[in-house]
Amino acid sequence: MNEWLLDMGRFVLQMSILTLLVVVAVVVIARIKGETGERVRLRVDELNERLEYRRRRLSLAATEPSARKRLAKAFRRDDKSRSRAGRKQADKPRSTVWVLDFHGDLKATGAGRLAEEISAVTAAASEGDEVVIRLESAGGLVHSYGLAAAQVDRLRDAGLSTTVCVDKVAASGGYLMACAADQLRAAPFAVLGSIGVVAQLPNVHRLLKRHDVDIELLTAGEYKRTLTVFGENTEEGRDKLQSDLDNIHDLFKQHVIQRRPALDIDKVATGEVWYGHDALEKGLVDALGTSEAYLVSRMEEARIVSVRLEARHAMGKRLGMAISEGVAGGVERLLERLDASRWERR
Asked: Is 92 one of the annotated active-site residues of the chain?
């Protein structure tokens, strides 16, 4: 027994050393090749073909084994028929629906990628094409989402029909982007609105004063600083910040009403949010429905092409991301298991 444990210990030690050597070799090779930056590749997926492939697989699975061979032959005949029809209609190609995705964070960090994707689509799109943006964002910094909204406006300036689909949330800066579309669709329980502006910061001046700590703040310019975290705030500073917020709110409302002129802006620019059905009644959206349902309906008459720029990270970074995601996934599964255990009975 002791000899078996000794052999097992040697094996584990050897495997650990081998794994460490492999990791070190990968890092060294990555540095030698200079893979310290990120490369970007364009990923293009034809969603019509993907849906048809899945439909056929499910049809075969639902068919009796004795009839699957005949069904597979029927699929091949359909392919030949489509190929002949496509050659005959080569002079009259179908329109294309270009699909982009935007998942926003506080700083709208995806705006740069979205800008490049829009540049690629506007260069390749033809007359009669449509651009669908599947948008999800709860908003964030004013200047960041102002830039992201300007990117969506480029599609309108290019004369492309634009549809924004909101499955979960387009609030505040997210709605600033969404309202630029020719058609705005939302799922029945998607959250929309929040046409407002907010600013908040803590102030620890009284705490510091209690401990005899002074903060010296020097500025050049009357309103270089209005409210601060450490200094003593004044009514004049509060009034100035409020005035700035009101001005940004007015710009927000003007942006929305220029793109959705039928909207009663005074009723919806209160900072409130509404779910899909209520948003439709108030004119914040044009129709209800999920993005998947809309794209499937468009497949009858158009090619659906998903376009996405993806970063190809360096080898070392990919390894680090894989380890990080593995740890995060393990913690998440543990928390889910603990939460589920509350409902289990033994």
From this structure: no
Asked whether 303 and 97 are in contact (CB, 8 A), the reply is yes
Q: Which homologous superfamily does the CATH classification assign to the domain defined by 41-63+93-194+272-312?
A: 2-enoyl-CoA Hydratase; Chain A, domain 1 (3.90.226.10)
In which residue are the tokens 């209520």 written? 278
pTM, to two decimals: 0.76
Burial of 270 (0-12, 13-18, 19+ CB in 10 A): exposed
Amino acid at position 129, single letter: D
The pairing of beta strand 161-171 with beta strand 130-137:
parallel
Using one digit for the tens of pLDDT, what is the confidence trace for 110-158? Answer: 999 999 999 999 999 998 999 999 999 999 999 999 999 999 999 989 9
Catalytic, 224? Answer: yes
Q: Which of 80, 88, 92, 224 is catalytic?
A: 224
The dihedral region occupied by 220, where left means phi > 0, alpha psi between -120 and 50, and beta the remainder, is beta
Residue among 74, 48, 80, 47 nearest 60 (CA): 74
CATH code 3.90.226.10 region(s) in the chain:
41-63+93-194+272-312
Annotated active-site residue in 172, 194, 291, 306: 172
Alpha-carbon span 148 to 110, nearest angstrom: 8
